């Protein structure tokens, strides 16, 4: 028996025996009541940590390894103590003058407990407050070694990483599947110091200069008077900003596309956005853009589904990431680079590489894989790790340098500065999740939350009292040396270069690269978001912007808004599409896809069993849905029900199967007679909740299958058996076989009405 099992049994036994445990009183002392249910408190060895509970390997700022043990403290010892280590006999009752008397101020445990609780919250991130994270490893292919001397990109190198995904606009408790950009921030704990790649799932940004960041965020955040809407861009201030600052047009178009509502963090691309400068062992430099390519492909929700999920499971993305890792379906991305010659102009094929509203199409500069990221361990404690992790674009290692992108410059200030408010002082690098794995030997001293105990008396250089230590490294002993880039003679100005003024050709390229169904989604998104604005002037200005991208796009959105289409103020740019931008038309692995199997006591339970096994075999997740919870008896044994008609909703599933006649879940959902009583004689063919499940799955382009009488449920849901992506067969096995092929395409795209 495992220790976990033993402990669970013990709790169950104690609950049954209903007896008093030792914590109910100090033996021999009167006045302590026995609660009716007691916990087991007999001291015992702590349970071994779960596989995912070892903290990060850390090195203290003085270079001493601290290991996970120092970071892990509560829940690991036999006795409950105060923060000072004094053992406690009771943590449920305040110290009182008699059981009905006043609480005494001298209760130091009460005061310590409530004081600590009062300060449990820290300010949430001003942007990217809502996030989820995981530990993992980065395995370098060594293919970048010719362009960078960064050790973690060298051959045969494995580097521990921590990755945090986030939404941008919403507060910490907001929903996951809102239309927004997603953060994709990676901390590489390299042997040469920590490298942070603080990217997004969209390769461009709203603005070209960091000085506008407070403005764009003020515009995107809820309105300051009523503080609504939460985590939405569908409101006046956002659209006011992005239509007045037309450099935002490209990013906004990505947000309005399917990229704004990812299916899963595991199915998003990531981008470093800015152009960085790599330097190799010979000192040669290369300009570079970073990409993360998900092994599972890039997939999205459909808008109605995204909206439903925000109510049904606001933690959808967070849960998906944690579940996949716990199940051993480790998400993977390849890190890849686009490289460009480091010329004085810093342009490539006419594209300004310093303008963060530009991409370089993959067709012009191939995306070359340089390593593999695998996320394989969930954090043990959300606050300690996911909340306290502090990323910074200035956390660089030798071999990776910055460029003069003005957006990047402001970030280099902001990410340090914000931690002082958020993490309470300048020593946040000492928090376990932020500790470098390379030895640290700085001369930074004191400050709030100093947890290191520095030795020596001379934290300055040069010194003679500490033997001259620490010494400075040189380029040949691993020092981070900035590339000595020549700065041309210039006049101080507050201006953007002329090349930053093309705001429309790149969004047009994106639009032209989309498949018809993706364009339809973009039109729908603009129509929805602008339809939520109140100001006519903002809608009209948005139509002017759309007219600069494409007349069809402008006309369709205008029609949806009930406004006349705008005339373009200049002809649309002449650009080639980049097919790599489309998410449709390729086949991807289906690992971790969730298959709902609807059945009931009268269903084909042996068929369900066979299909479950086949689904698991294919690396996907089968979930049996039945009228009520518990188990169903099949000839070959019991079948566990994972979802009931009350808890299942289509959004959780990538495909839905109906195994036989699923039957009714509850009288409450059946037909009623004139007096409102259940009318046993006129039951509908299918439970309305199953009908809803199927009709939603159908509308959202998901694969659907049925056999052994399950067709009746399809009919009751208005799902035509001969529609694309609907498979009706003789047995579960044959239906699943055809369905598996459909899942590789993510959706049954033909089902979306285009141009209708
Ligand atoms: Fe950020 N950004 N940002 N950002 N950003 C923050 O730092 C900022 C930008 C990104 O999971 C903050 O620690 C400025 C681009 C991610 O902890 C803050 C500008 C990109 C995260 C900040 C930008 C990003 C942040 C808030 C304009 C993609 C979450 C909390 C120049 C390349 C990291 C914090 C995490 C977080 C500032 C623009 C990505 C305020 C000034 C472009 C993924 O410092």
What characteristics describe this protein?
Catalase HpII,  Chain A, domain 1; 18 helices; 756 residues; 26% helix; disordered N terminus; 15% strand; binds CIS-heme D hydroxychlorin gamma-spirolactone 17R, 18S; six-stranded parallel beta sheet; 3 domains
Please describe what this structure looks like:
Its EC number is 1.11.1.6. Keywords: Heme, Hydrogen peroxide, Iron, Metal-binding, Oxidoreductase, Peroxidase. Residues 81-469 form the Catalase core domain. The chain is an alpha+beta fold. The protein folds into three domains: 131-434, Catalase HpII,  Chain A, domain 1 (Beta Barrel); 504-581, Up-down Bundle (Hemocyanin, N-terminal domain); 594-751, Class I glutamine amidotransferase (GATase) domain (Rossmann fold, 3-Layer(aba) Sandwich), CATH 3.40.50.880. It is built from 18 helices and 20 strands. The chain has helices at residues 3-17, 67-71, 108-118, 213-220, 236-244, 249-256, 303-312, 316-326, 382-387, 406-422, 505-513, 516-531, 536-549, 551-561, 605-617, 688-699, 711-716, 732-743, and strands spanning 131-140, 158-167, 182-190, 193-200, 270-271, 276-279, 285-294, 332-341, 347-348, 351-352, 368-377, 400-401, 594-598, 621-626, 631-634, 637-640, 643-644, 655-659, 703-707, 726-729. Strands 1, 2, 3, 4, 5, 6, 7, 8, 11 and 12 form a ten-stranded antiparallel sheet that branches. The chain has a six-stranded parallel sheet with strand order 17-14-13-18-19-20, sandwiched between helices. The longest helix is centred in the middle third of the chain and has 17 residues, at 406-422. The radius of gyration is 30 Å and the shape is globular. CIS-heme D hydroxychlorin gamma-spirolactone 17R, 18S (HDE) is lined by residues 125-128, 131, 164, 166, 183, 185, 198-200, 205, 210, 213, 273, 389-391, 407, 410-411, 414-415, 418. CIS-heme D hydroxychlorin gamma-spirolactone 17R, 18S binds at residues 125-128, 131, 164, 166, 183, 185, 198-200, 205, 210, 213, 273, 389-391, 407, 410-411, 414-415, 418.
